[in-house]
From TrEMBL:
It comes from Hansschlegelia quercus. This is S-methyl-5'-thioadenosine phosphorylase. Catalyzes the reversible phosphorylation of S-methyl-5'-thioadenosine (MTA) to adenine and 5-methylthioribose-1-phosphate. Involved in the breakdown of MTA, a major by-product of polyamine biosynthesis. Responsible for the first step in the methionine salvage pathway after MTA has been generated from S-adenosylmethionine. Has broad substrate specificity with 6-aminopurine nucleosides as preferred substrates. Keywords: Glycosyltransferase, Purine salvage, Transferase. It catalyses: S-methyl-5'-thioadenosine + phosphate = 5-(methylsulfanyl)-alpha-D-ribose 1-phosphate + adenine. Pathway: Amino-acid biosynthesis; L-methionine biosynthesis via salvage pathway; S-methyl-5-thio-alpha-D-ribose 1-phosphate from S-methyl-5'-thioadenosine (phosphorylase route): step 1/1.
């Protein structure tokens, strides 16, 4: 197995990773476009870390405008093997109050105006995605959260809405009825693209609010989210530090196949592949091409 590199994608409120040592900026070019920001490479203890703020420095990209393909391709080029998304979210469950960290194990994708695959005309691929997160990475996050005494729960379904507006009360009730535990606007197609790139992915969904399904409550507003978000961000820093301190040197085999997702996924035989697309896939699919 290859050397492990831990990637961290910082969401709302997380534009830097305090505690990162020997930091170097990496300007990584990709064939898909520009990543949200230059990558920050460094280490915590012996663990190599690459950090990327998904909304850019100064929170310039809305969830629909983030170039998710450029972000994942850049992280792949920087050697990331395991990727943790730190994300703010709304909650659909009374037992998941603001401040709770949900280590989600399922997603529902409700986005509709984002590029959601590296593949397409000229090279078609279908990766498995029934189990979208890497259980070994989740287990490491759960252990780190327990050691830091952070309120957390293992398992939960994250519904990804398009946004950028928050949900109506009817939408909020519908997502809850669908079985979603939390809602956010960013983890799709990020998680799908990470799978195509054979990067193990896990999400720490950090609850900031109860969305809009509770009839007795005022709806969601960013102003009320910000204070909880600040506390969540501080706790996320401790979580990452602990995770990194105990991270393995070598990449672990992923029980759900994140590290070999492309083994049988590509359906287009070599003679029928589009050379231009194949060139773009150089970083993502080089292991199997
Ligand atoms: C600050 S509330 C809305 C905003 O926060 C979440 O983003 P991220 O996952 O990057 O933390 C949510 O998805 C919205 O984009
Ligand atoms: N209620 C909510 N809906 C969508 N994204 C969110 N991010 C934080 N809270 C949210």
């Amino acid at each position: 197995m290859a050397k492990a590199t831990l990637g961290i994608i910082g969401g709302s409120g997380l534009y830097d990773l305090p505690g990162l040592q020997d930091v170097r900026e990496l300007d990584v070019a990709t064939p898909w476009g520009e990543p949200s920001a230059p990558l920050k490479e460094g280490r915590i203890g012996a663990t190599r870390i690459v950090f990327l703020p998904r909304h850019g420095i100064g929170h310039r990209f809305s969830p629909s405008d983030i170039d998710y393909r450029a972000n994942i391709d850049a992280l792949k080029r920087a050697g990331v093997t395991d990727l943790v998304s730190l994300s703010a979210c709304g909650s659909y469950r009374e037992d998941l109050p603001p401040g709770m960290f949900v280590l989600v194990d399922q997603f529902i994708d409700r986005t509709f105006r984002r590029e959601s695959s590296f593949f397409g005309a000229g090279c078609v691929a279908h990766v498995a995605f029934s189990d979208p997160v890497a259980p070994n990475l989740v287990a490491r996050l759960a252990k780190a959260a327990a050691e830091e005494n952070l309120a957390h729960i293992v398992g939960g379904t994250y519904v990804c809405m398009e946004g950028p507006q928050f949900s109506t009360r009817a939408e909020s009730s519908a997502y809850k009825a669908m079985g979603a535990s939390v809602v956010g606007m960013t983890n799709m197609p990020e998680a799908k693209l990470a799978r195509e790139a054979e990067i193990s992915y896990a999400t720490v969904a950090m609850v900031t609010d109860y969305d809009a399904w509770r009839p007795q409550e005022a709806g969601v507003e960013v102003s009320s989210i910000l204070e909880v978000m600040r506390a969540n961000v501080a706790a996320a820093g401790r979580l990452v530090a602990r995770l990194a301190a105990e991270f393995p040197e070598e990449r672990e085999a992923c029980p759900v196949g994140s590290d070999r997702a492309l083994d049988y996924a590509i359906l287009t035989p070599p003679d029928f592949r589009d050379p231009a697309l194949m060139a773009k896939l150089e970083a993502i699919a080089s292991r199997v091409l």
